[in-house]
Amino acid sequence: GSEAASEQGQEEEVEDRLKEHMDSLLDKSAKARQAALQSLRLALASRTLSEFLLERRLTLTDSLEKCLKKGKGEEQALAATVLTLLCLQMGSGPEGEEVFRSLQPLLVSVLTDSTASPSARQSCATALGMCCYIAAADLE
To answer: What is the pTM (predicted TM-score) of this model?
Structure first.
């Protein structure tokens, strides 16, 4: 019993930290946004959070969109990486497809922008390929 309660407490603590990181994506400071993206990247890469993300995918997608639009270089690269991990977590169902469809034009835009940093363009290309493979319903 106490082991299950301890595990539940750890899970809530992780979710609280993730909520804080998601809130920090809207910070005015680029450094704070990058730190939040870095933390989200680590969290999404290390554990399955599909239930948590399912409820917050629209909020997270909006925040990632802002980071891709307004951010520069490293921030765009991290946002694209987090988007790839989000697509992986959402899977090939309608939720994953919705996330991909909403951010696909932006990924293509950064990818084809010759003034964007090479790391941002490369991360957007990876995100586009991975998300397309996982979540695109349209075969084209």
So the answer is: 0.89
